[in-house]
């Protein structure tokens, strides 16, 4: 019934069904999949940055989207602060040839 009603309004409009099919494929398939990929990539990068489980983040977001994204936001590990003194103590070979910075010469 609805296609008959629509055809009454659109019978004088020239159309290219192939082009319309391509546009709808992009709109209905490629855009949502691209968005889902971006969200999964972000969750994976976030898990890596926070030393969390990348697999857990991906599974939650992929299988339970969008609820899984909110669950990941709630259970993700806290971000760890970078401790430069500890890093320097753990990697002394990287700092053995470094000199302290010299003060700039006075301008004038």
Uncertain segments: none
Q: How many strand segments? A: 0
Give the percentage of residues in beta strands: under 5%
Helix content: 55-70%
**What does the main sheet amount to?**
none
State the separation between the terminal residues, measured CA to CA.
88 Å
Going by helix content, strand content and strand pairing, the class is mainly alpha
| SS element count, helices | 5
Element order: H for helix, E for strand: HHHHH
Rg result? 28 Å
Q: Roughly what is the average pLDDT, rounded to an integer?
A: 79
Shape: elongated
Outline the fold blueprint.
Elements: H1 2-10, H2 17-49, H3 54-63, H4 67-75, H5 84-90
Helix pairs in contact: 2-3, 3-4
Q: What report would you give on this structure?
A:
This protein has helices at residues 2-10, 17-49, 54-63, 67-75, 84-90. It has a domain at 14-78. Helix 2 runs antiparallel to helix 3 and helix 3 runs antiparallel to helix 4. The model has no long low-confidence stretch (mean pLDDT 79). It is built from 5 helices and no strands. By secondary structure, the protein is mainly α. The N and C termini lie far apart (88 Å).
Spell out the key features of this protein:
single chain; mainly alpha; 5 helices; 63% helix
How would you summarize this macromolecular structure in one to three sentences?
With 108 residues, the protein is an all-alpha fold. The protein is built from 5 helices and no strands.
């Amino acid at each position: 019934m609805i296609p008959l009603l629509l055809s009454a309004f659109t019978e004088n409009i020239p159309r290219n069904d192939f082009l319309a099919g391509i546009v709808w494929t992009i709109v209905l398939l490629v855009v949502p999949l691209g968005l889902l990929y971006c969200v999964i990539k972000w969750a994976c990068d976030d898990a890596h940055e926070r030393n969390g489980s990348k697999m857990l983040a991906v599974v939650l977001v992929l299988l339970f989207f969008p609820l899984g994204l909110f669950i990941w936001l709630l259970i993700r590990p806290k971000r760890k602060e970078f401790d430069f003194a500890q890093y320097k103590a753990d990697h002394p070979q990287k700092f053995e040839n470094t000199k302290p910075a010299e003060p700039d010469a006075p301008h004038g």
